[in-house]
Amino acid sequence: MPRQNPPDNHPARLSLISRHLAPVYPINTPYAVERLPDTIDTSLLPKTQSRSLSTSPKMSFQPAHPTLLIPGPIEFDDAVLQSMSHFSESHVSAGFVATFGETLSMLRKLFQTSDPASQPFVLSGSGTLGWDLVAANLIEPGEDVLVLGTGYFSDGFADCLRVYGANVTELKAPVGTKPQLPEIEKALSEKKYKAITVTHVDTSTGVLSELQQLSVLVHRISPDTLIIVDGVCSVACEEIDFDAWGLDGVVTASQKAIGCPAGLSISMFSGRAMKTAQNRKTPPASYFASMKNWTPIMQNYEAKKPSYFATPSPQLIHALHTALSQILVKPVSERFAAHKAASDRIKKAITDLGLKQVAANRDEQAHGMTAIYLPEGVKGANLLPILAKKGVVFAGGIHKEIAAKYIRFGHMGVSVLDPKRNDIDHAIKSLKEALAECGYKGA
To answer: Among the CATH numbers 3.30.450.40, 3.40.640.10, 3.30.1020.10, 3.60.10.10, which is that of 83-327?
Structure first.
């Protein structure tokens, strides 16, 4: 039967913890932000969306569409999307159990852990569910957590931890940078923390936090402190060596650099973190996000044994299996290097246009996205619709201090790795043309 396209709906999305609504226009559009702060005046933004055809080579069944170059969801490979069309099957059938088990084993290779005590989790939910896994299982009410603040999403992680009763200390850096090692060392020396959290790439600013030296510091100054990484916008495009760097937890999501449709919370926890969860004095503060409930399920699936706590999505697991199979065809080091090379090319083009990045320091710039300050006199509400007409979808800003002053360009997965696509070249060309149409004269 011919494939029917789904209706073109764009429902408004709630903010991080359902505090802000955007009733004026649909949030999930080229003109919008991922989670809209209440400081943005939405009255200036367009109320309709202009559609344009993708400039990428035509896929076998994907309808023509604007190329999605936001910091997630990203463009998806055809084979991954076809995996979503897998026939319906039981979540405890032999075939599905084998697929899920292989998926969990492949995650160990992606995160670079060979420690049998490490535990992967794949749960139905968004990347935000990873915060709940950490807060509900590893932290008990009243325990101290140090949150390294680099933007909107590190703020959100802190909010989540507080919901579960953690005593949170935020070590915040100025917009566009990160807390530095000497100040982190000072904070760790002044108080004993149960955990330290770091947002590897804060999607609101494009700031990349260094993990290896941070881990060395934590293990030296406060060896009992768990090292927890929000890797939602970094896993599969930024290097993460779970075992070698002594990490205790990395949480991420399916729809970014891993290249699978949204709907899966993906995480890896160390043996030390798992013992922390097992030995807590109080029960986990969540039912669905309870490691106590999920750990035997994950272990059974990886051992190819049927198991049940809550129903997973077989179609999404098949898509994730396909995405991971594609990723692991080559050494993950090559994937990281390819993203870095693409990022360097994009950032040079941005500089050549006379534009500045939110993350000003080169060693603090993410390789899967770029946050770009708008030039004087150019508004995102004008620029983004022009880009959309050219078939390119960028994201608006979401950091509350600078939201209206910048846009975000996502460059992860097939858009930078598939040599048959010209997504990046077309995006750079379109950005230059759109800026000119907004009156920008260039550098």
So the answer is: 3.40.640.10
